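Need tokens for this chain, all 263 residues.
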Amino acid sequence: MAGRLNGKVAIVTGGARGLGRGIAQRFAAEDARVVIADIAEAAAADAAAAIDGESVVCDVSERASVQALVDRVVAKHGQLDVMVANAGIAGGAPFLELSDELWDSVIAVNLRGVFLCNQIAGRYFAGRGGGAIVNTASILSARANPTTAAYSASKAGVVSLTHSAAAALGQFGVRVNAIGPGYIETQMTEGIRADPAMAQSVRDATVLGRFGTPTDIGDAAVFLASDEAAYITGQVLFVDGGWLLHRNPRGEQMQRATTTALR
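Here are the structure tokens for all 263 residues:
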């Protein structure tokens, strides 16, 4: 059923690679006009060219940069319909060794960046009377790990922010939801997938027995951005193959896998 986003203009932050690129590809396949916003200029341009989209350099941790992004898209296209606040960075360290610098950098991009995208796009959507926001959270927003305090806190913050933004913007016809990816085949999990023991530990802890793909995340994002989700807001859709159903993924191998992924 193609064309579910026909006529819609969408921004995908962090769309140059990984989950963001998968989302951008699926949006384009559903006939959206996609603007990839990323701090990596060359990679963003390459990703945009592959889907006949556009790219804009943007630092989501800076208000002026996000404002300029939204203003540019609206000025060029006359509309913005979907904001996908996906840009994020990884960082893992044992809790007692976690530095201020790592904490600040992760929170700045993963949480402040999502807040800015939600608020700035939300103001525009409120003024026009509708729009959809899709945030990227994580399974680690819902499961503790001693080596991912900054990353997990940032993603838990995204979940809470999603709830708050949905409650604030619903009166204007704006929907705000989040996706919680599990272990996906991206650069972030290369180290895990290259180690047979660690890769198997992830599969063993995942009900469906495999890693996810960026397309799995893109499919979920298409649904939440489309009119099919017209009565859904303030929700987190975990796309994790059932990883969160696992009774006790706290073993040494799982902790090693998570730490490796976030370095």
